[in-house]
Amino acid sequence: MLKEQTIRKPEQKPYSEKDIGQSFMKNQFKVDLRTVSEKEYNRFITLNTVRDWSQLSWKAIGKPYEVKANSKERLDWEEQNNRDMDPHTSWTYFNKAFHEWFVKDVAGEMKESRTNFLKSLGTFKPTEIRTALGEIVKLQLWNYAHRIQDGIWDPRGKRAMFEGLHLKKPRILFLGAAEGYEAMQLGAMYPGAEIVMVDYDEYCKTTRFADFPESYPFLGENPRTGGSTVVYKDELNIEYVVDDIRNLDFGKEFDIVLSVGLLEHFPDEYKHEVADWHRRFLKPGGYAILTTPRNQVRSRLYYRVMADVMNHTYRELMTVEQMGLYMYESGFDILRHGYIKVHNGLVCQPR
Ligand SMILES: C[S@@+](CC[C@H](N)C(=O)[O-])C[C@H]1O[C@@H](n2cnc3c(N)ncnc32)[C@H](O)[C@@H]1O
User: Fold this and answer.
1) Domain range for residue 45?
2) Poorest-confidence range of 68-82, 85-99, 108-122, 314-328?
3) How far apart are CA 190 and CA 170, in angstroms?
4) What local confidence, expressed as pLDDT, does residue 2 receive?
5) 3-state DSSP call for residue 222?
6) Could you read off the pLDDT of 184-240 as tens digits, one per residue?
7) Rounded-to-integer distance, Cα 351 and Cα 336, Å
8) Considering the domain boundaries, does residue 12 fall inside one?
9) Do residues 5 and 15 touch, judged by C-beta distance below 8 A?
10) N or C: the chain end with fewer CB closer than 10 Å?
11) Is residue 322 within 6 Å of ligand 1 at its C-beta?
12) Do the domain assignments include residue 99?
């Protein structure tokens, strides 16, 4: 008789090694088990544009672009409370708003939004028509950015960024983990990984991570053969800590300290402190891996159209050169740098 954990209910774990090399469009997201050939590699990641970080200056590369369009929720809150929204509160609003988009049946809602728009035309009320049209635009953009392009999760780009670290059973600390996607991708690639996710918004543990689909397949390494395999969330070793990063009392015990979309939320006077969070818990020889959204025209447009979903906090868009210079100036050697669809990425080590 099969042991219970080896019985796969097809709807819970629908993909296996036979699906490697394929992609599938689901209602909420794309499944991408395509590997990248050497010939195609440059389509998914552009690597190492800077030769010598010591030669780069802020004068030459400029400072990041600050996204100024705030969400309506933030503006309303600030009016009611008569003060700026503090970062912790703003993250609780952001995480709720963002999560609602990940769980949308995008195809179904696009149909509904078109019907609502046609109905609104019949009302002859400009505000109703504008709102209905705004919904269509947001859904189309989300469909393109998340489902068609797969730009937010971007598994092929992230795998290209994370590969080749020569680590066995690494301990991975994910700072500001939200739903935890990138640590799970790393965990799939480095079998036997122990992952600790940290976020001070409890909703990230109880909802964003908890609701992350059990059926989502991560392309990873089969420890027995060294070949590719499919890994699911429940097969990974994950502890989720709800706390402020500033309160963590871990020692230098992690092989990888990771953050995705954290550094750009801190104005320059705090960047060194954030960089230091990536050094404090690293074993000697460990890697700090960071990604931040790219400063490109389509990203500026995305953050303007999706302001009500995305913009509760201070936010910058930057180039990989700017991102690398922050870390270089904070005492890190940049081992690998590059950009993928919508994010920049660095793999670095304390000097
Ligand atoms: C922009 S999100 C990360 C992006 C993520 N991939 C996503 O999909 O939302 C940053 C996360 O860091 C968390 N965070 C920010 N400052 C923190 C702190 N001091 N301690 C713990 N978590 C923090 C926020 O709650 C938020 O969930």
Assistant:
1) 18-61+150-350
2) 108-122
3) 7
4) 41
5) coil
6) 999 999 999 999 999 999 999 999 999 999 999 999 999 999 999 999 999 999 999
7) 14
8) no
9) no
10) N
11) no
12) no
- Residues 115 and 46 both lie in one domain: no
| Whether residue 121 has pLDDT greater than 70 | yes
Please report the atom of ligand 1 found closest to the CA of residue 246.
19
* E strand or H helix at 74: helix 72-81
- In the block, residue with structure tokens 């066995």: 168
| From 98, 101, 245, 343, mutation site for ligand 1 pocket: most ligand atoms within 8 A of C-beta | 245
User: Is residue 243 a contact partner of residue 232, using CB atoms and an 8 Å limit?
Assistant: no
43 has a pLDDT exceeding 90: no
Q: Residue 8's pLDDT is what?
A: 54
**Do 328 and 188 share a structural domain?**
yes
Q: Is 233 exposed, middle or buried (0-12, 13-18, 19+ CB in 10 A)?
A: buried
Determine if residue 226 is left, alpha or beta; phi over 0 gives left, psi from -120 to 50 gives alpha, anything else beta.
Answer: left
